[in-house]
Fold:
Amino acid sequence: MASPVKIKASVSEVVRHTGSVASYHFKPQGRVPKFHAGQFLHLALDEYQPNEQWPESRVFSIASAPSERHEELAVTISVKGRFTERIFQTLENGSECWLKLPYGEFLFPPDKHLILIAGGVGITPYLSLLKQMLEEKSEQAVMLYYGIRSAEHYLFGDLIKRCEAELPNFGKAVYCEDGSAPGEKGVLNIVAIHAAAPSGSLFYLSGPPAMIGTFRKRLQDLGVEAERVRVDDWE
Ligand SMILES: Cc1cc2nc3c(=O)[nH]c(=O)nc-3n(C[C@H](O)[C@H](O)[C@H](O)COP(=O)(O)OP(=O)(O)OC[C@H]3O[C@@H](n4cnc5c(N)ncnc54)[C@H](O)[C@@H]3O)c2cc1C
Structure:
């Protein structure tokens, strides 16, 4: 695994998805180390002086494909507290910030059947994988379960549509609480997801802590070994 590197970057694009969720695309100003889909970076807004202490930062899943790393790094951020509010209010095209990467063990082995479960903005750690799979025309079996509150929270529909059209073994199921988005009306059901999964599948959980806690416990009760359940824990 590459050692983390600190890089200055400038914002090349901001996409505001909702009143509190936005994607930021960065143009790196230094050498970006190799990273794997599913890993995350530290984002600092204040100037970093080499040999001084790293400024206050928060961590975000890398949402761009590993192969694009020299041209672009991206994250998708949901405003939760003081720091993410500051990102949302201050970062715009041309803004400069500091990134430190790569980190994390939320990785996707290429030879397993993957069950990706996303609650809301928990879709972010899967974006890099989906982009990489499209580039590689991957034949890996991947099923994405995506739970959202309403249609405005359905992010990256175009990317998911491309995966369905171009990847032979990709599937998706969307569950929308108020029925305003295409898909099933309701919430993700981990018992049904488990029942539909081929044996030996790896289960990935990313989303609100309450969802992760409940689903992890349910999978354990259903006899899924701990090593087949991977969690992107934002706590
Ligand atoms: C592996 C991982 C991946 C993540 N990926 C994403 C993602 O892709 N998108 C996304 O929106 N969110 C992601 N998060 C959550 C994100 O990092 C923030 O923790 C979250 O958005 C909280 O919001 P905030 O920082 O604005 O809250 P704040 O209110 O600013 O702080 C939240 C917490 O951060 C800690 N904190 C406070 N001050 C400091 C400080 N000076 N230095 C360090 N920590 C401090 C405290 O525990 C505080 O309660 C991820 C978290 C993890 C662990």
Summary: The pocket of flavin-adenine dinucleotide is lined by residues 40, 56, 58-61, 75-78, 80-84, 104, 121, 124, 232, 234 (CB under 6 Å). Helices lie at 82-90, 124-136, 157-166, 190-196, 209-221.
